[in-house]
Specification:
The protein is α/β, with parallel strands linked by helices and about 350 residues long. The protein has two domains: about 200 residues, 3-Layer(aba) Sandwich (Rossmann fold), CATH 3.40.50.620; about 150 residues, no CATH class. The protein contains 13 helices and eleven strands. The strands form two sheets. The protein has a six-stranded antiparallel β-sheet with strand order 6-7-9-8-10-11, with helices on both faces. The chain has a five-stranded parallel β-sheet with strand order 3-2-1-4-5. β4, α5 and β5 form a beta-alpha-beta unit. α4 packs across α5 and α8 crosses α13. The longest helix is centred in the N-terminal third of the chain and has 19 residues. The radius of gyration is 24 Å and the shape is elongated. The model has no long low-confidence stretch (mean pLDDT about 90).
C-alpha cells in the first residue's frame, strides 16, 4: 500500500481551536491521527499534553524544534518577519518539513494543519499557503480540512482515502463556523484561536533580539532564559565583549534561571535578605571584577530589604549553581557605579530586526 493510501495521518496541533478541529475532522473519517505538538522557547505547551490527550481523545506527541528554530532566526528567515519578530511563513515551513519526515516514517497519507485561508495576513494568504506547501515538499500531501473546499484536492482526497465532501470551505477571520463545529464535536473546553507565539509580542522580542545579536553561538537554552526575569545587558559602545544579566522577578523565575544555567554562569544573591537571583551569562572569557561587582549591585537593587536598609549590602557570587556559600561582594544597591546594565529598548530592537544586513 502506498503512503497516500494509508489510513493514517499526521496532524500539527498547536493547542489552538483550528488545529484541534482539523485533527477531529480527519479522525471522524476513520483515520488514525497522530498529532505533533512543536515545542521551542517561543511556542509550545508541553505541560498541557496530558490534559489535552484526556480531554480531546487524541494521540499527541511532542516534537522539540528549539535548536532548529534558533538557527532559523540566526540565519534571517528568507520570507522575513511579521509585524514584530515572527517569521510565520518560515516557521510553518520548518515545522512541516519535520512533519513530512515523520509522515514518511509512519507511513501516513498526509500532513494535516488547521490553517484557514484568509485568516492571517502573513502566512494564510493563498500565495503564502502555496509557498509553504511547495517549500515543505508536501505537494499533494498537505491537507487543510477547514478550508479544503477552497483549495485544490490532495492525493488522499483524489484516491478516496479522505472524503472531500466531508471537509469544509472556511474563509477569513470570523470564528462562527469554528465554534459551530466545536459544538458538533462536543468540545466544551474551547482553546484560544492559536497556540500563542511569544515572537509576536513586542516585550518578548525586545528580550530575544539582543540574545541573537550579542550571544556568540545562541542556543535554545539562551532563549528559554529570555522567558525568565528582567533581561539586562551591558553592551560597550566601542565594541568588545557584552555581558548579559537576568534577574528573577519571583521564585518561579529563580528556579528557571537554575534550570537553564550553564556550568560557568555566575549567580548573584543577597547574603542577608530574601530576594531575586541574578544570573550572569558566560560567553567566552570570565567576567572581569568590574562586571561582577556591577551585576551584584544591580541584583541587590532589586532586593527590597537590601534597598531600604541603607549603606552597603553583601551579595554572594557563585559559579554554575545558586546554592553554596559563594564569594562575598560588598556593594551599594543604590549606586551601581562603573559598568551599566540596562534593558534593550523595543525601538532599537525593531530597527535592527528590520535591517537588511545579517544579524
Amino acid at each position: 500500500m502506498s503512503a497516500s493510501n494509508a489510513r493514517r495521518a499526521v496532524a500539527l496541533l498547536s493547542g489552538g481551536l483550528d488545529s484541534l478541529l482539523s485533527a477531529k475532522v480527519i479522525k471522524e473519517q476513520g483515520l488514525e491521527v497522530i498529532c505533533l505538538h512543536f515545542i521551542s522557547p517561543f511556542f509550545g505547551k508541553p505541560h498541557k499534553l496530558e490534559q489535552w490527550r484526556a480531554v480531546y481523545d487524541l494521540d499527541i506527541r511532542p516534537v522539540d524544534a528549539g535548536e532548529d528554530f534558533v538557527r532559523l532566526l540566526a540565519s534571517r528567515p528568507p520570507h522575513g518577519f511579521g509585524s514584530v519578530f515572527n517569521p510565520c511563513v518560515d516557521c510553518k515551513i520548518l515545522m512541516l518539513r519535520k512533519a513530512a519526515t515523520i509522515m514518511r516514517e509512519l507511513g501516513a497519507c498526509c500532513v494535516v494543519t488547521g490553517e484557514v485561508l484568509g485568516q492571517r495576513p502573513m502566512s494564510q494568504r493563498r500565495d503564502a499557503l502555496n509557498i509553504i506547501r511547495r517549500e515543505a515538499g508536501l505537494k499533494g500531501l498537505l491537507l487543510r480540512p477547514l478550508s479544503a473546499l477552497r483549495l485544490e484536492p490532495t492525493l488522499p482526497e483524489n484516491e478516496g482515502v479522505i472524503d472531500r465532501s466531508r471537509l469544509f470551505g472556511f474563509y477569513g477571520r470570523s470564528r462562527k463556523a469554528q465554534m459551530e463545529l466545536a459544538a458538533r464535536f462536543s468540545i466544551t473546553e474551547i482553546p484560544t484561536p492559536a497556540g500563542g507565539c511569544r515572537l509576536t509580542e513586542t516585550g518578548n522580542a525586545r528580550s530575544y533580539y539582543p540574545i541573537l545579536r550579542h550571544t556568540p553561538h545562541p542556543a535554545a537554552a539562551d532563549f528559554y532564559l529570555g522567558n525568565a526575569g528582567r533581561q539586562l545587558w551591558h553592551i560597550p559602545e566601542e565594541g568588545g565583549e557584552s555581558f548579559r544579566l537576568v534577574v528573577g522577578r519571583n521564585e518561579a523565575d529563580n528556579k528557571r534561571l537554575a534550570d537553564f544555567a550553564g556550568p560557568r554562569d555566575l549567580f548573584f544573591r543577597s547574603r542577608d535578605f530574601p530576594g531575586p537571583t541574578g544570573l550572569g551569562r558566560f560567553f567566552a572569557e570570565p567576567w572581569p571584577a568590574a562586571a561582577v561587582t556591577a551585576a551584584a549591585a544591580v541584583t541587590a537593587a532589586y532586593t527590597p530589604k537590601a534597598g531600604i536598609s541603607g549603606g552597603k549590602t553583601v551579595m554572594l557570587v557563585s559559579e554554575g549553581a545558586p546554592e553554596g556559600p559563594g564569594e562575598e561582594v560588598e556593594v551599594d544597591p543604590a549606586s551601581a557605579s562603573g559598568l551599566r546594565f540596562s534593558e534593550y529598548s523595543w525601538e532599537k530592537a525593531r530597527a535592527l530586526i528590520r535591517e537588511k544586513t545579517e544579524v
